[in-house]
Design brief:
This protein is mainly α. It has one domain. The protein has eight helices and no strands.
Amino acid sequence: MIFDTFWAAYPVKRDKKKCRRIWSRRKMDSMIEMLLKDIELRILHDDRWKDGYIPYPSTYLNGDRWEDDLKMPDLIIQKKRNDESERQLQERIAASIKRGDEEMKEYIALVKERRQ
């Protein structure tokens, strides 16, 4: 089941039964790739998540938390800044995550490599 893939990737394991009901009610199977990318980016870059303030998975799903702003590291902001405001950049990055752009995949690989 696709929900199990989400559950395995999400760093907090609380209220699985409730979370599964939300997943089914909202018919979220088609969103799995985008959600997995968002979770991975938040684990690596979201200051709140890195500090251990990770919402329960049911809260994440019910609140559409993948739409929350994600503060990207200065590295990517400096690389992209040119004429863009930070808000425009965050919106572009969020859209990129949802599309699964190659640039985002390359960036994630670079960050993983630097952390090793």
